[in-house]
Amino acid sequence: MYLLYACFCLMGYANVSITFFKACFFTSLVFVVCVFAYQTLDALDGLQARRTGSCSQLGELFDHGCDALSTCILPISYFIIIGFDDWPMLMFIQYFCIQALFYVAHWRCYVTGVLAFDRVGVTEGLLIGILFGTISSIFGSSIWSIKDPLLGLELKVVQFLVFSVVMFFLAVQFADTISQGGCGKYGTTVANTSVLFPVCPLTLALGFPVLVAINSPVNLYHQSPFIFLLTFGIVSAKVSQRLVIAHMTKSAIYLFDAVMFGAALLVINQYFSCPLPEVLVLWISLTFGAVNIILYDADVCIQLADFLNIYVFRIGRPSSMRHNNKNTPVKSSVQDNTYKNSLRTRNSSRN
């Protein structure tokens, strides 16, 4: 429901009919309900796993993989309800800083082998989003355009400054942890690779949108800001998912990923003086990225289900596994009886 809501808002912005979404309290109310449901269900799945005795590392894998996808959509909905499109450059910076924070948090986990929770994390960010959405649903998004009496800045700009301060301290903390070395051999990562190499995929994922936004002759980002953010947000989400899987499987990560072809297409189009309309290429890149990440996630789920012989959306195992489990003790008991009979025959022959 939350994904449908986000897409609904994006379609409104794509059609340039954004006044309704800013003024309608229903938009902010749906945002609050969906984020609250997302946070609640995200916490309940762990309780359900402990209650049913199905706790495993798969829970962390699916949980953080879904969080990576939500991280590229939730900030866009948040920007919509506070009307942050009036400050497109600040919105650009805050959006990709959120993507970087999520990636760096799992980078630290990839290095240390331990998932650490900071004082200000995802839960606190979601609660702030719920609070801001509630205020917007009551007073409208125009309330965030009120200027602060002390600084003379709009409230939406003040929240950006607060976010920047929090991000600075978190970045310093992450850098300090990573600089101390990893848990692997000779201070490497859990996969015995360089602790600094994960910065390379992050640099590519964040470098593409900067290049496209700066070199666009038609100001592509200002023309379609939310479609632009979603297109490159999918790239960041896919890179983060690959990092999560690399940590869980203790394997190396790679510099380039197939999802980056869509972003590279925009750069190549600009390099050749835009033979194709940039808006068209942007939609092609968005479609390619969405299809790529969906197929990748589906492929991961199918491979896990086949290899572990489990269901993805149900507790229990397929009937073939149950059948094999039932036959296993029967087969072993038959072998034991045969072995005992052979021993008796040998003893009787000796006597």
TrEMBL record:
Q: Which GO terms describe its biological process?
A: phosphatidylethanolamine biosynthetic process
Q: What is its main location?
A: membrane
Query: GO cellular-component terms in the record?
Result: endoplasmic reticulum membrane; Golgi apparatus
Region ranges (Disordered): 323-351
Question: Which Pfam families does the record cross-reference, listed alphabetically?
Answer: CDP-OH_P_transf (PF01066)
Domain of life according to the entry: Eukaryota
**What subcellular locations does the record give?**
Membrane
Sequence intervals crossing the membrane: 20-41, 87-105, 126-146, 158-175, 195-214, 220-240, 252-273
Composition-biased stretches, type Polar residues, lie in: 326-351
* Gene Ontology molecular function, alphabetical: diacylglycerol cholinephosphotransferase activity; ethanolaminephosphotransferase activity
Keyword set, alphabetical order: Membrane, Transferase, Transmembrane, Transmembrane helix
Is Translocase one of the keywords? no
What family name appears in the similarity comment?
Belongs to the CDP-alcohol phosphatidyltransferase class-I family.
Q: How is this protein named in the record?
A: Cholinephosphotransferase 1
